[in-house]
Amino acid sequence: MKISKNNAILCPCGHNKSYADCCQPYHAWQKNAKDVETLMRSRYTAYALKKVDYLVATWHPQTLPTKLADYLDDAKWIDLRIHGSWQKENANEAFVEFTARYRNSSGKAEKMHEISRFIKQSDHWFYVDGEVS
Question: What is the distance between the alpha carbons of residues 107 and 123, in angstroms, rounded to a whole number?
Answer without folding.
Answer: 40
